[in-house]
Amino acid sequence: HLLVGRSGYLQITMPSFHLHEEAWHYLLYPKRVGQGFKEFDLYKFRSMKNEKGLQITSKDDPRITKVGRFIRKTKIDELPQLLNVLKGDMSFVGPRPYLEAELKRYENYAKIILMIPPGITGLWQTSGRNELSFEERLRLDTWYVLNWTLWLDIVILLKTMKVVLTREGAY
């Protein structure tokens, strides 16, 4: 009876373990630069075919999968970043975590932006998202760092909810 109980238990848990292993295939770990120029692995759900750390060029980028389009618009692809928050690599609100190559071109901005941890959401995500130029994003992130208040974080979190629900500027 004990043996049947054990094997019945194994039959239930083994398939879930297999699914758990496959789930890692759907996670992406691109390198990003955080506070103090420290590199870390950013956790995201995979939303593109052949993701190589390249930036999205348009909402019609052919590398984005059908499921990927949905999870990007709803920001579900960023849910794994809660692990980054728990690890201390990120905060809920802050500048976006940038690629090292992006910041090398904009060193003056980087010195300010990297004074604090990057955030899952931030000022530029609630001020136009993908409709802004890269330099406008950097300016907004810099302004955020230099003018931070707790109230500003609360406003950004509330605006993030609105942006996610309405899918403004998302692709």
Describe this structure in words.
By secondary structure, the protein is mostly helical. The chain has seven helices and six strands, in the order αββββααβααβαα. The protein has a two-stranded antiparallel sheet with strand order 1-4. It has a two-stranded antiparallel ribbon with strand order 2-3. It has a two-stranded parallel sheet with strand order 5-6. It is globular and about 40 Å long. 24% of the residues are buried. The model is unreliable at 1-22 (pLDDT under 50).
Q: Short description, anyone?
A:
This protein is about 45% helix and about 10% strand. By secondary structure, the protein is mainly α.
Per DSSP E runs of 2 or more residues, the count of β-strands stands at 6
Helices and strands: which structural class?
Answer: mainly alpha
Percentage of residues in strands: 5-15%
- N→C terminal distance: 55 Å
Total count of helical runs of at least 4 residues: 7
The whole-angstrom Rg is: 19 Å
Mean pLDDT: 80
Given the C-alpha coordinates, what overall shape results? Answer: globular
Unreliable residue runs: 1-22
Layout of strands and helices, then pairs:
Blueprint: H1 2-23, E1 27-28, E2 31-33, E3 39-41, E4 44-45, H2 66-73, H3 81-87, E5 91-93, H4 100-105, H5 107-113, E6 119-121, H6 134-146, H7 150-166
Parallel strand pairs: 5-6
Antiparallel strand pairs: 1-4, 2-3
Helix pairs in contact: 5-6
